[in-house]
Amino acid sequence: MSFDNVFHFDLTGADCLIVGGGKVAFRKAGSLIAGDARVTVVAPKLAADFTRLPEEGYDWIAREFLPSDLADRQFVFAATDDRALNKTIAQACRDNRIPVNVADSRSNSTFIVPAVLQKGDLTVSVATNGKNPGYSRALKSYLDDVLDDRLLEALAVWSDVRETVKVRVPDQSERERILRSVQLVELVAALENESKDNVYRKVIKCLLL
Fold this sequence. Notes:
Helix content: 40-55%
Pathway: Porphyrin-containing compound metabolism; siroheme biosynthesis; sirohydrochlorin from precorrin-2: step 1/1
CATH class of the largest domain: Alpha Beta
Keywords: NAD, Oxidoreductase, Porphyrin biosynthesis
Catalytic activity: precorrin-2 + NAD(+) = sirohydrochlorin + NADH + 2 H(+)
EC number: 1.3.1.76
Organism: Peptococcus niger
């Protein structure tokens, strides 16, 4: 199974179920709560890490999983330490056409969760096709150090240039040709010594707009 497509969902209000109460479940819960999802955790007990999450951020059902727990769920995360149970949950989700992520098995998952780095308007998703989540987290941390403010400023300049081109150039093919001529490396280099506004004006002048 290959996970080649990447989608970014608005999880606000999405009904998400996590089965399991360990550290993996804790990480899933934290990410979902940050995305304003409605989170329900089903597990007989929770790891101490859960005390770091806001109590109002999730509902805890303190018992073993029941098939009825899947009712009306939009996303399910099987994160128990029982592989047979995780597989059973995954199959039930498939039967009910519910997207499911299984923490210990990409083959039983219908989607995977990449490590996500968010800096301003820039979002970078890092995944290893489900083979090594630890590497994804390590690479995310590395990129967090590498992606400096100039790259974010370059994004802002490029976005402003794009909006100007959209207004001034009615032909789509011509717009695409012009925007392809903008070079990220040159933007970053220019921003080392000049303000965003100055770089924007120079780019527009260079493009003869």
